[in-house]
Amino acid sequence: MQKLVKQWFAKWNQGDFHNLPIADNFTHTSPFGTIEGKQAYIALVEANKDKFLGYTFKIHDEMYEEDKACVRYTAQQGEDFKLDVSEWYYRKDNLIGDIVSYYHIGEIQEDRKIEDYET
Question: Where is the SnoaL-like domain (predicted)?
């Protein structure tokens, strides 16, 4: 599993998203929703290259088991955009079959803010 996840990050570092180590029936779930199928995922990236490519990744934590892994990292694109992410990876047919990605995508709603919380 560690080898697959390392390949995943290496392909993103190279901008080689067409050759990600993902299964044909790959699913990617994030705060934006779920993309089903390798071709649909590749097409989404192709149509939104400016939002997907050009990142550097700082890995903070990694945990690996035989068929799943979790990685916590910071993705940075340019000088101004950073995203803190935790992702779970699941193996299918010796490839990455599923990813469940957790990150914050916007401002906290006013009614959800905690009073007197120091950040």
Answer: 5-96
